[in-house]
Amino acid sequence: MSTYDNNKSRFFQGMVDIGAKNNSSITEIRYLRVTNIASVLGVIYNAIWMLVAFFLTDALVIYVSNALLGLIFLMALIFNKKGWRVLASIWLILASYMSLFLFLYLLGYSSGVEVVCFLIIILPYMTFPRKARNIAHAFSILACLTLIVTVIFQSNITAHFGGLDPYISQIVNISITGFICLILISSMSILIDKSEESLMAEQKKSEDLLHNILPANIIRDLKESGKTIPKRHKNITILFTDFEGFTETVASISAITLVNELNDIFGRFDEIMEETEVEKIETIGDAYMAACGLEKEMTNHAANCIRAAQMMLSYLEDRNKSHEIKWRMRIGIHSGTVVAGVVGKKKFAYDLFGDTINTASRIESAGEVGKINTSSSTYELIKNDFTCLSRGKIFTKGKGELEMYFVK
């Protein structure tokens, strides 16, 4: 596209968008744009009549009246620019009525100008904002009554200016009105399509955001019934991580630096979870919890968590080589049964409940930095796939002695 075409496109787009605000709804912007388009078309209507009068008659009254009407139509753009939406729409309809009555007076019923009534009937519903819908009803009804009265008393509506052939007047009025209807309807159709595309894009953003917060089955339940029933999962694996010396690290760096560091690390952890089919559940401070086997039943849920843990430790090891702050992490993994669900009515939070969660937390606390500590239940699921080192029974707070294994 040439520079000229680009400039022309920007000019027309700028004219159509006069008065549009970022905080306006998509629907309100659509009504505003149609109002602007209709105003410009009103100017074109009167400009065409000026050309017709120039070539076919030398009557000054037609030149002047159409020039003034064109300026009156332009006022609607000015009102939109100032944010006076309802006034702009009212002014547009009044300008249309002025054109109608002027032509009926000058050229009479035989000029065919009564077809403009059909345009005035539909125009309010295409231009008035929703808050002024009652005014739109009134103007449309008035246009219907005007058309009926005009047809009934057509014999009394005679031309006060006889310098133009009625046949030519009919051709011009009907043709221009049809052209304006075509432009308005096609513009409305395009704007509706754009609105739907924008809504679909926003809906997709919302869907993506929801899927980052809640599992797909929970989202489906909330959409269908507005609530979700807690679900029991018998065979899942929980992965817990925690940073060694986190309290000391927090005291030595700024809050912004801390958030940026955790965001960078946990962002990579999220990617690892996705790569290994493990689902992130939540982060609490420096703790990261994930689970595998919730969305769908699988036999390799424990192995997936082990692979995810290995990738997390490998990532941290590489990261520490190039960053000033060195993060040292423990990982605990335990397999068992949990109940999953959403609690509360606002700010939904998906969480897991059950003794398996507490045990996984204790397994992590009893681990060592840079190592993957597992329970005996997880060991039984992975012993054929990974080499493990028995640690024997380790005492844990609230759980007593638990059999634990390090994954090599």
From TrEMBL:
It is found in: Membrane. One of its GO terms (molecular function) is adenylate cyclase activity. It comes from the Bacteria. Residues 237-364 form the Guanylate cyclase domain. GO terms for cellular component: membrane. Coiled coil: none annotated. GO terms for biological process: cyclic nucleotide biosynthetic process; intracellular signal transduction. The keyword Mitochondrion does not apply. This is Class 3 adenylate cyclase.
